[in-house]
Specification:
Two copies of one chain form a homodimer.
Chain A lengths: L12 H19 L4 H8 L3 H13 L3 E7 L8 E5 L4 E8 L3 E7 L5 E8 L7 H21 L3 E9 L9 E4 L4 E4 L1 H8 L7 E5 H12 L8 E6 L3 E7 L2 E2 L30 H5 L1 H8 L13 H12 L3 H25 L3 E6 H4 L1 H15 L8 E4 L6 H15 L8
Parallel strand pairs in A: 3-6, 6-9, 10-13, 13-14
Antiparallel strand pairs in A: 1-2, 3-4, 4-5, 7-8, 10-11, 11-12
Helix pairs in contact in A: 1-3, 2-3, 4-5, 6-13, 9-10, 10-12
Chain lengths: 406, 406
């Protein structure tokens, strides 16, 4: 059974070689250390072709020959691994209350992971651009000082993004039609590596698909908790973006027409139950007196501490939010049938209390026994969207966009 | 911006030629009549390559040289079209109350379109297999008597299908774990063309994507009304099946926890508002007295006739069902952001009365103005799933699975 395809593109010999370089690179990532003979045996490419492809990848400093031989019968074989020193992939993440940066080497190991508070709605759009560009610049400077070449840099934002890298709107940041990509490219002095802006839930899904405990699962959804709630959808190994780039914007999914009023004017939206402001109101009823919250990190810690100490209001609030989250997971299951839904962002921080309620609700709502998908908690937090931004450059590499030899 | 990819496959020279044969075939389908020079100019392939590819496709009787020359400046050019005579692609559709068969030529023209009543739940699984096999046999006999070669045959069923072509369950047919594909293959005497079984909403989506008024739209969802309600999802030009093949099974999407009781035991499911039994109960309140309905075609006609004559009960029932359908379309829009949602099956039959309510609800629920996706009515009914079954064979062809020359 096949699916319908996007318009096929004409192919030539260069495409064949590019495809095969990417196949070898990917094989080494998932099977290192391995020999040329292993690659030939597993991919079906002949040994001479594999030798030529490996030579090319060694030349580009993407692979490294360890010189070690495996203890095996027959001729000793040189073992190949990914070369982790010369390159770095960078991701940044703009949250309602923080900025984060992550850099990965070719093997997906974190080279750095920074996080700083950021006044979100308090910062104007101009200050936001400047703050993102400054952080990006510092990360790039640090990595290049280590002798690394940047493979790519992607900024994750909590809102839909145009193909030109503009942020259409990010209400929790007070942004609308912000041309972040051109500003960033300019601030980085028109760099020779690709720079991109993308939606945070989408990038978190790419990160889970590449580096999470369910990596490689072809049908995976991330559900990211924050001031906003977003889903990132991987279907059959590919990110689902939708016609306008709005796929997964499920914060205003209506769970109950008779539910509480949402700031969008309707009733019973997912955000009105499980968004951070709703959670804080329910679990910390005294907080509103201090005025609107803009940095939720201290509140999240307080909620977790209260729940841990057995506070009833906090426990009830988390159970109620978890049940509603489970209801949303069931909607995603009905529409998409993912193998796993991964809870990220604030949902990961509070997962000890949310997950049991989520799982109970999902199980109760499954149409037939055994049909309920698996719900898991992200192990890539904090910074899963930033990690996804970095992963995007590694995905590009394995799709055949290789750096030219220095 | 790229998406993450499924595991890349090694490529060789045969793949390049296959890819390019498919590119040419697809170009001619969408641009015929066209010359070799047109193909070269549009695809970027060089003229000698195009000539060789076209010769191959002429040899396989997939293209035809019309001998006509276009009225243009310069050398006259032979014009190519798809050869529509030698081949046929076949699709069958098993509904709760009917069987349908459609055959298409390479250009997507209908060669035949048959429909017959079928007692659905009344027929045992054994009789169902026999009825499907007999209809398939008659279609194949008719087409081969016309000198056509069968490219493929696919049966659409209203339920999830295993990769082995078994029907896991189709409650409205009383089927569970029915090995339809092996039975069908045997009844067709192990044919030399591919035979498949697939989900009806998925196949309807393939049909819309290939032959409907929104053909080629990369993000498209079909919403098929019947005893059951199913969605078929095309995202970025590819069918979304989900981890277990359950994607789009949205009949039990809960629209209102305080809604009417559904046969699944929960409240407020989409089917409890807009499934055929619910529609018949609301629009024809006298019908239940005659016992459970198994063939809904006469009831659908009665509802349409009443609505046309201004009957208030029928009008109210259709408006209410349309609003709930609009609510479901909004859920699909939140999760998937399709460019268009196409109403098919019974929803197409009743679209004159359903569509205004659907559109009003979708518009009212859009988070921001201009974000509401477009809702359309299928022009491929009756038999859009059968058309999709036939389209599957044409998709295979354009993915490079070409018949060998006779």
């Amino acid at each position: 059974m096949i699916g319908t395809q996007g318009a096929a593109q004409p192919a030539d010999l260069t495409d064949v070689r590019t495809t095969n370089l990417a196949v070898v690179l990917r094989y080494v990532r998932t099977h290192a250390p391995c020999s040329r003979a292993d690659i030939a045996a597993s991919t079906g490419l002949n040994k001479a072709t594999v030798s030529s492809l490996v030579a090319d990848l060694l030349d580009r400093r993407l692979l490294r020959d360890t010189g070690l031989t495996e203890n095996r019968i027959g001729r000793p074989a040189a073992m190949l691994v990914l070369e982790t020193r010369p390159y770095a992939a960078v991701g940044l993440e703009v949250g309602a209350d923080h900025l984060a940066a992550v850099a990965l080497d070719l093997a997906g190991e974190r080279l750095l992971s920074w996080r700083r508070a950021y006044p979100g709605l308090g910062a104007g759009a101009g200050r936001a651009e400047a703050a993102v560009a400054a952080l990006a610049g510092r990360v790039v400077t640090k990595l290049t000082a280590q002798g690394r070449r940047i493979l790519g840099l992607t900024v994750a934002v909590p809102g839909p993004v145009t193909t030109a890298g503009g942020v259409r709107f990010a209400p929790h940041l007070g942004w609308s039609d912000l041309d972040l990509l051109p500003a960033l490219t300019k601030a980085l002095h028109r760099p020779d590596y690709p720079v991109a802006v993308d939606n945070d839930a989408n990038l978190a899904a790419l990160a889970e698909h590449r580096h999470g405990p369910h990596a490689g699962s072809p049908d995976l959804v991330t559900l990211i908790g924050g001031v906003d709630i977003g889903a990132g959808i991987i279907a059959d190994g590919r990110l689902v973006r939708g016609g306008q780039g709005f796929a997964g914007r499920i914060g205003h999914l209506q769970l109950d027409p008779g539910g509480p009023l949402c700031r969008c004017g309707r009733r019973g939206c997912l955000e009105a139950y499980a968004g951070l402001p709703a959670l804080v109101r329910a679990a910390l009823p005294d907080t509103d007196a201090d005025g609107p919250v803009s940095d939720f990190a201290p509140e999240l810690e307080r909620i977790a501490a209260l729940a841990r100490s057995g506070d009833e209001a906090a426990g009830t609030a988390l159970t109620e939010a978890g049940s509603r989250l489970g209801q949303a997971v069931s909607v995603l299951a009905d529409v998409l049938d993912p193998r796993v839904v991964v809870l990220g962002g604030a949902f990961a921080t509070l997962s000890d209390w949310l997950l049991p309620a989520v799982e109970a609700e999902v199980k109760a709502r499954a149409v037939a026994p055994g049909e309920a998908g698996h719900v898991a908690v992200s192990t890539l937090e904090p910074g899963s969207a930033a990690t996804g931004g970095a992963a995007l450059a590694l995905d590009r590499l394995e799709a055949g966009h290789l750096p030219v030899p220095a």
